[in-house]
Amino acid sequence: MKALSKMDNLDKGELLCRLFPEELEKLQNAIKEQCEYFLQNETAFREGWYQKGFFTAEFWYRLVQNANKEIEKNQEKLWKRPRWFADHFFDGHNSLFALYCLIEYSESEQCNPALKQAIHLLFGSDKILSITLNDK
Predict the structure, then answer these.
(1) Do residues 54 and 25 touch, judged by C-beta distance below 8 A?
(2) In whole angstroms, how far apart are CA 19 and each of 1, 14, 36, 114?
(3) Which of 3, 65, 86, 103 is a plausible cystine mate for 13, CB 3.0–4.6 Å?
(4) What superkingdom heads the lineage (predicted)?
């Protein structure tokens, strides 16, 4: 096994999936809930988007749509196969949205305390992006 400092997000995601296979359905549901939230509020988020540079609204919504498409296409196949789950959510730029969702989920009461510790160990506890919906 690689040292933690040498692991990329795919390595860390695969390790998390192998350590907590019984939690993958809940993680997939948490990602799906975030997708639904962002898609339902897309207009408001795009209008109030203040991030510059790499994290444009267009880029972020591409990540949301990628995650949502994979969940709809593969349903329970993802959470039943840890390697597939990691490949779909932790590879490349797609990992940015997955990490956002994991860190959000780790703050919920539904998150298994051991899983929360593992998420924070592997990915940290700092939010990748601070996103708030501005109500008009």
Answers:
(1) no
(2) 13, 9, 27, 10
(3) 86
(4) Bacteria
Domain boundaries, the chain: 13-123
Entry pTM: 0.88
Residue owning tokens 């994290």? 55
DSSP letters, 24-63, are: HHHHHHHHHHHHHHHHHTHHHHHHT----TT--HHHHHHH
Q: Please state, in angstroms and rounded to a whole number, the distance separating the CA atoms of residues 67 and 62.
A: 9
Q: Using CA atoms of 15, 16, 19, 24 in order, give the dihedral in degrees to the nearest 10.
A: -130
pLDDT over threshold 50, residue 136:
no
79 and 24 in contact (C-beta within 8 Å)? Answer: yes
Task: Look up residue 99 and give its two tokens.
Answer: 């990490």
- In whole angstroms, give the CA distance from residue 70 to residue 109: 26
- pLDDT, tens digit, 9 for 90 and up, residues 97-106: 999 999 999 9
Q: At which residue do the structure tokens 């692991």 appear? A: 7
Report residue 128 as tokens: 């990748």
Tens-place pLDDT, residues 67-84: 999 999 988 788 888 899
